[in-house]
Amino acid sequence: YNEYKSYLRVTPTMSPDLNSKKEFRIFTPLFYFVLWCGSIISQSMLVSGFLNVVISTLQVEYQLNSAEAAMFPSNYDITVAVTVLLVSHFGSSHKPRTLGIGMLLMAAGSCCFALPHFIYTNTQEAREKDQYLCDNSINRDEDCSGKAGLTSDNKGAYGLLTLGSIFIGLGAAPVYTAGTTFCDEIFSPDKVSVYFGISYGIGAAAPALGFILAGMFLSKYKTLGEPPNGITTSNPNWVGAWWVGFIICAILALLVGCALLLFPAQLPECEVVKRKKRELRIQTEEVIEEPVAEHVEEKSFLDLLKEMLPLIKNVLTNPVLVLLVLASITDSFIVSAFAAFLPKMVESQFGLSSSSAAFITGGVVVPGAAGGILLSGILVRWRKLNGLQCAKYQAFIGIACIVAQFGLLIHCPSVKLNGISVEKNMTCTPSSNDCTTCPSSSIYSPICVGDTTYESPCHAGCTTHDSVNDVFGNCCGEQLNLTGNPGTCDTGCKYLIPFIIMIFVIMFFTFLNNIFFLTSNLRCVKDSERVMAISIQSVAFRVFGSFPGPIILGAFLDQACILWKYECGKRGACQEYDNKKVMTMAIALAMIAKTIGTVLYFIAWMVWEKKEAKTTTIAYSDGVKRRPDPSQKKTNVISEDTEQREEDDFTTSNKIPDGASVDEVSV
Q: What pLDDT digit, counting tens, does each position of 296-348 carry?
């Protein structure tokens, strides 16, 4: 038992030689890495995949408008922003357990999010298609007992969905904080980058898996059985099995969380990795701002707070960092807004089912984003770009992204809906008074007669129905005697392929900024301020970008609705949108945000360049002015003008010789 226990804990006197220990162990670094990747898959597939794809289905199922449905991804972002700093601080003593608790919370939140399907079956009763015919003898009175809009059942479902999204945010907070740092502690410095690359690659591929699975589940009816009355996926009232993906993620998160709870706070490899890092610092003569003490006294909360406040002040008073963060907030705003509603926009523009829209969106967004991130990383490494150069790249990439966003002007014509987008009864006039009791807007069963879509066969005056061929007859009166087919009319739009290409280009340029932004952010602050800078950036992204983005775009989409569903006098979900208005509002929002961000990137670049021009100038002993070579010893000749500059601003006391520019000798 003592020998087994020694593998789980490292005492101060232990100095393990891992090569000499060949006994079988369960809690190994590789096992932890597998579990950490499992947590990344759960988080990415759940949040970036299922949660965004099922929004349009939840709107139909529980009669939510776009602004209400946008609260689910926004709740996740604001929860992560509020808790990530607390989790990073209080969970640092036992990182595997912190991550395990997070996975259990995520499993609970995922189950809570799927729970409304099993408790609230708030959908309209199945009706025979003959009941939609033009016949006053059919009783179409609404049953308003607990079914009016967001009342009773719908309010309960909305509450569970909100609570579930909050718990998912709580569980996701330690995935990339505690999970990443513990991985860095148990793998040697020369190998940890490989594991980081694998884990982040899995995190980039998991959303694609989420989109694919969500598309498969949404193509099945919500009960996983046969749909009533032959309803197909093209029907506006179709509700797919949106809940299945959340159950799968809950099971995966539960298994990973239980295994992580069994891990010790440290592995034997931790001491070995620390020793290797110390040796590596000595070999490379790495300069460390603060020496590492042999014994670090435990500090109280007040002491930590006193150390934290100056760091926060330094970060928030760094003009370059503040400008970069403000600019990147606009990117976060655009990405979160379109991630939530792009599947719905594709569905509305091209008349696709929710499952087809999920497949297309996942097949375009994920490769575009991954390609942008990959290329930016290659450029930074290949060109050996510093922080100032990365800031310059970001400014010009912003211009390219603005140009690409004009592709959002591609749109399809809206559905010609009788009485709304075309003149009332312009082509269809029922011949009798048999259509005075047509279903209200609580029932939307569109039918295409000619080139015009009607809310129901009754609104088109259809009096017969061929159940074999599923065709309605005697529509638009006896004189015309037209036939009608269920569903909306085909708008003849051929812009799907160009639209997909433009979305790919926009996603590519948007995510091309990622590595440039990360590099410039880390280079514009001191080493001791980097952790605080990253933490403040993460909070700012979510609070001012990811949180309001979906809500604002959802409110804009509600303004483009041309047919609302009303149930017992209360408004529910939107049935049809004005496609031109949707894309106009979307491009206006994206253009405004991206233009502001690009201007801020340019200002950050110019401020940084001006700051660099004022910093230390190097004069070498041989008298030649050139860029400093770290491998050679150099003499700094500086003078300080305290009346005109702050303490950190210096200028050279040597006169620059003729033919030498300031850029050639400035650092």
A: 455 555 666 666 778 788 888 999 999 999 998 998 899 888 888 888 888 88
- Integer Rg of the chain from CA: 30
Tell me how far apart the alpha carbons of residues 574 and 64 are, in angstroms, rounded to a whole number: 8
Evaluate whether 442 touches 567 at the Cβ level (below 8 Å). Answer: yes
Within 10 A of 322 (CB to CB), how many other CB atoms are there? Answer: 18
C-beta separation of 484 from 457 below 8 A: yes
Give 227's contacts (C-beta < 8 A, 6+ positions apart): 221, 238
Neighbours of 571 (CB within 10 A): 16
Q: Answer yes or no: are the C-beta atoms of 249 and 109 closer than 8 Å.
A: no
Element (H, E) at 638: strand 638-639
Let me know if 533 is exposed, middle or buried by CB neighbors in 10 A (0-12, 13-18, 19+): buried
CB atoms within 10 A of CB 294: 5
Q: Give CA–CA dist 45/244, Å, rounded.
A: 13
Strands 638-639 and 561-567, bridge-based pairing: unpaired
- Contact predicate 96/182, CB 8 Å: yes
Question: What pLDDT score does 280 carry?
Answer: 59
Closest CA to 239 of 126, 339, 163, 147: 126
Structure tokens at 66: 């776009």
The amino acid present at 454, given as its one-letter code, is: Y
Mean pLDDT value of segment 271-290: 58
595 contacts: CB under 8 Å, gap ≥ 6: 402
Pull the structure tokens for residue 598.
Answer: 């690009």
Q: What global pTM score does this model have? A: 0.71
Which residue from 297, 348, 404 is spatially nearest to 56, judged by alpha carbons? 348
Q: Which two tokens stand for residue 465?
A: 């129905």
